[in-house]
Amino acid sequence: MRESSFLIQESEQGERLDKFLSGKCEDLSRSYIQKLISESRVIVNGKAEKGSYKIRKNDLIKIIIPEAREPEIKAVEMDLDIIYEDDHIIVINKPPGLPVHPAPGNLENTLVNGLLAYADRLSGINGVKRPGIVHRLDKDTSGAIVVAKDDLSHKKLVEEFKERKVLKIYHAIVKGSLPYNEGIIDAPIGRDPRERKKMAVTERNSKEAVSHFRVLERLGDYTYLEVKLETGRTHQIRVHLSYLGHPILGDEKYGRVNKKNRLPVERQLLHAYVLGFNHPCNGEWMEFEAPLPEDFESVLKIIKNT
């Protein structure tokens, strides 16, 4: 069993309890949070409350998550967008909204489930929940991801990521017009000291984080950017662009959401556009491009036409 506690700040009051927890507990699905609430495993000021409860300043919320037996991860047929495949690796264009691996409350609708149905074999280094998974993309970030079919390929790819030999280029639409056409963001990232579920630019308990950006197109109130990662910290691009004052469009975690905005944005518009690495077996340099998904293209088109 594990427990998490949250002390409500003034800026957070008035939000529904279930919605608040969905934002704080990213590893738990909304349906699983509802289940915990119905089982009285969410306690507010010593009392079980309903999901509709409106939180108040200084409320102490405790969520109790029971230990679960290691679940069986099922193979689920999915229409995977395969960019490249050989006997050792698979490169996939991951759609937005699809988590990479299973977590409590979502054991069947993840990339891993689709891979189990698609591939004859996957590396086992990361255990039963993450077979083949060398690196990850956030649930709502789309784009190129490489998967290993065997343990040796997995180890070599992980080494490439650690040694910063992997080319990672992203496309993003950000709010505002950047005053420069290109630049480098060299700002360390660590846990946000005020909100532990978030990352932040901070000097405290942080790690080096470097991002290179280039303006692809200026679109009035928005900018279409290319971002190349030198390091690979959690939420690095999202944190760095927010730190610049130009959060990614649709990023509820690191940027304010304008409810008056009529653009059809359901997630952060961040896409892993290019992935390059040395093949784990023959050492050949390989570079893959993942086409933009439909939702990203649609928003770009709307912005350009307004």
List keywords for this structure.
globular; alpha+beta; 306 residues; Pseudouridine synthase; 30% strand; Structural Genomics Hypothetical 15.5 Kd Protein In mrcA-pckA Intergenic Region, Chain A
Tell me about the biggest sheet? 9 strands, mixed
Question: Could you say which structural class the secondary elements and strand pairing correspond to?
Answer: alpha+beta
Radius of gyration: 20 Å
Task: Report the count of strand segments.
Answer: 15
N-to-C SSE string, H for helix and E for strand:
EHHEEEEEHEHEEEEEEHEEH
CATH class of the largest domain: Alpha Beta
Structure in a nutshell:
The protein has 306 residues and is an alpha+beta fold. 18% of the residues lie in helices and 30% in strands. It has three domains: 2-65, Roll (Structural Genomics Hypothetical 15.5 Kd Protein In mrcA-pckA Intergenic Region, Chain A), CATH 3.10.290; 82-162, Pseudouridine synthase, CATH 3.30.2350; 167-304, Pseudouridine synthase, CATH 3.30.2350.10.
